[in-house]
Task: inverse folding
């Protein structure tokens, strides 16, 4: 990836697992009179990889190829309505004696904000949680806000969007990947730890003014009362993206516990099993699952993996029609392989042992549940 550094600005980056309140946070910040946060330029996860095909934007025809790749990219749906902004950015790159993909990214954020009358710019690409070191290297003064949400609520929310798999296993692992990426980043020692903030969705939804005031202090902007009515002032258009319609609603607690009605016991057990350590870290308490439902977990796991494989087959077929892809989503595959390894090892250890812990009969300390009644 190109190594460039911009020290003359302090963009705001919203990251975290998708469906964790990142869109809500973008809408809240964008309702501030001096802030405009763009939606998903996907620089590190996709655009930076265009260099495989377009290594030098100064070469003849390079900008044509670069913007053609943008038009075919997986993330284009998030920027399809930014025609005027992208045309302006292209003009800036054409006039720049040293155009680069990194400058495209910065110009795109700046142009988006300027056209909305805001001086502070930034963007929301949830997957940037896997590239936080790169974020700080490129924008040392940038402000990073990581959103985290109960994994059961996060997974249940994914089941309502058209672009996600319908299995809970890969969705839980993607949540785990995002959480691990952020925690590993903190553990490794960020270059500017004072520029990193974490927000729990549940706290934002239940005590919005206190959390929003903390966010304003963090990014260095005064509190704006418009932020408490973001749905009226953010000017974010989601008409073509119906899965984002939640940002058109006032901040409320309605989605915090919906997963209890939307997920079956075996599915909850699987999510709790896969995300147990991270749930404990964030204080998300597992619920007890009735023994009868726990016995259904192995069969449910097989169904979930079948759903994931069907989803991946459909995605591969769609990508074959669109040509070369540059989006990096390999990390979840590694987690899935690790899960298969765990399952194989568990099966070997418990084969022939009626007393050992199994997927369907976890130990009392397991986050899967204890076989008591479900609350």
Result:
């Amino acid at each position: 990836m190109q190594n460039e550094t911009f020290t003359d600005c302090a963009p705001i980056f919203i990251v975290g697992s998708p469906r964790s309140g990142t869109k809500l946070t973008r809408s809240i910040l964008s309702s501030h009179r001096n802030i405009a946060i763009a939606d998903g330029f996907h620089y590190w996860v996709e655009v930076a990889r265009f260099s495989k095909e377009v290594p030098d934007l100064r070469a003849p025809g390079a900008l044509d190829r670069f913007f053609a790749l943008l038009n075919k990219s997986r993330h284009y749906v998030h920027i399809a309505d930014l025609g005027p902004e992208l045309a302006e950015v292209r003009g800036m790159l054409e006039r720049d004696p040293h155009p680069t993909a990194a400058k495209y990214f910065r110009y795109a954020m700046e142009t988006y904000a300027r056209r909305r009358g805001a001086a502070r710019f930034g963007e929301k690409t949830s997957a940037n949680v896997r590239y936080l070191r790169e974020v700080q290297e490129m924008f040392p003064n940038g402000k990073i806000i990581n959103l985290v949400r109960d994994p059961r609520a996060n997974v249940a929310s994914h089941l309502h969007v058209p672009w996600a798999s319908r299995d809970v296993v890969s969705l839980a692992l993607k949540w785990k990947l995002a959480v691990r990426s952020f925690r590993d980043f903190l553990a490794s020692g960020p270059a500017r730890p004072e520029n990193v903030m974490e927000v729990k969705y549940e706290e934002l939804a239940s005590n919005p003014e206190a959390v929003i005031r903390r966010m304003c202090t963090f990014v260095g902007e005064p509190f704006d009362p418009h932020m408490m009515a973001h749905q009226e002032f953010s000017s974010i258009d989601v008409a073509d993206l119906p899965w984002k319609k939640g940002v058109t609603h006032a901040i409320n607690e309605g989605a915090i516990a919906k997963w209890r009605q939307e997920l079956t016991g075996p599915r909850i057990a699987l999510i709790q099993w896969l995300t147990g350590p991270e749930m404990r870290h964030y204080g998300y308490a597992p619920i007890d699952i009735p023994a009868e439902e726990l016995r259904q977990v192995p069969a449910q796991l097989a169904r979930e993996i079948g759903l994931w494989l069907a989803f991946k087959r459909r995605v591969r077929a769609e990508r074959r029609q669109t040509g070369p892809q540059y989006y990096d989503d390999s990390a979840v595959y590694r987690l899935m392989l690790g899960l298969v390894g765990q399952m194989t090892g568990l099966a070997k250890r418990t084969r022939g042992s009626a007393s050992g812990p199994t997927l369907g009969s976890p130990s009392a300390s397991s986050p899967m549940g204890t076989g008591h009644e479900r609350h």
